[in-house]
């Protein structure tokens, strides 16, 4: 079974689960539960547009393929905007949308908790 067909099947299953459960957290998790979307949103937190290569350097452990897939999903969800710069060769910039900034605001307490937890863990070691 090819990748696109598996993805369509998985998306249909997720939507069925969301409809059945009626739980709003499921729709949030379907977007942000993966590792890369949250790291991309965090990389774009300063508000300035970033080129694809800049994002790749900001998140050095992401492959270009995974970065591209995650960005595509974030653009489809209207969390990130994509602007093609008409140069030769064309370059693409990404930036948080207003909607994406609201998610970043919701993430901030979780980031603060993670930072505090890291400090706590250091003192325990």
Write a brief caption for the model.
With 125 residues, the chain is mainly alpha-helical.
List keywords for this structure.
3-stranded antiparallel sheet; about 120 residues; mainly alpha
Average of pLDDT: 84
How far apart the termini lie comes to: 46 Å
Question: What's the count of strands?
Answer: 3
The main pleated sheet reads as: 3 strands, antiparallel
The number of distinct helices, counting runs of at least 4 residues, comes to 6
Walk me through this protein's architecture:
The structure is a single chain. 67% of the residues lie in helices and 11% in strands. The protein is mainly α and 125 residues long. The longest helix has 27 residues, at 98-124.
Secondary structure elements and pairings:
Elements: H1 3-21, H2 24-32, H3 35-43, E1 50-51, H4 52-58, H5 64-76, E2 80-85, E3 91-96, H6 98-124
Antiparallel strand pairs: 1-3, 2-3
Helix pairs in contact: 1-2
């Amino acid at each position: 079974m090819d990748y696109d067909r598996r993805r369509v099947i998985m998306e249909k299953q997720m939507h069925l689960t969301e409809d059945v459960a009626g739980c709003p957290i499921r729709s949030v998790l379907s977007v942000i539960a993966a590792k890369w979307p949250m790291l991309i949103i965090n990389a774009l937190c300063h508000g300035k547009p970033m080129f694809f290569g800049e994002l790749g350097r900001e998140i050095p452990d992401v492959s270009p393929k995974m970065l591209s897939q995650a960005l595509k999903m974030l653009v489809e969800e209207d969390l990130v905007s994509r602007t093609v710069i008409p140069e030769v060769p064309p370059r693409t910039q990404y930036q948080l949308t207003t909607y994406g900034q609201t998610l970043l605001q919701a993430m901030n307490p979780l980031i603060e908790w993670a930072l505090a937890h890291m400090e706590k863990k250091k003192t325990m070691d």
